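Please fill in the sequence for the structure shown.

STRUCTURE ENCODING:
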């Protein structure tokens, strides 16, 4: 496999991992909310709880993604296996 394919597969895998972590954290938080918090609040407060659960699951997935990515980048030599996403273009020197 070449570096470009490795890069594309890594991006797809990392995105899939991030979505899976978000879904799992959403389900766990929703179960905890319905089990412990729902009996304590009136039904009009459920929408705020759902919104808070949704935003919290996104925040948790970002935090987990950063930790796992930092660990992965410490273990793997990036330049050896991956192609850079953004390449600096050479700047034209003005004629003086």
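FILLED IN BY: designer on duty
SEQUENCE:
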């Amino acid at each position: 496999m070449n570096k470009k394919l490795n890069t594309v597969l890594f991006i797809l895998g990392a995105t899939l991992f991030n979505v899976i972590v978000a879904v799992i954290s959403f389900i766990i938080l929703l179960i905890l909310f319905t089990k412990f918090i729902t009996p304590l609040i009136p039904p009009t407060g459920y929408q705020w709880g759902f919104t808070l659960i949704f935003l919290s699951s996104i925040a948790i997935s970002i935090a987990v993604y950063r930790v796992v990515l930092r660990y992965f980048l410490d273990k793997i030599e990036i330049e050896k296996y991956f192609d850079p996403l953004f390449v600096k273009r050479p700047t034209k020197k003005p004629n003086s």
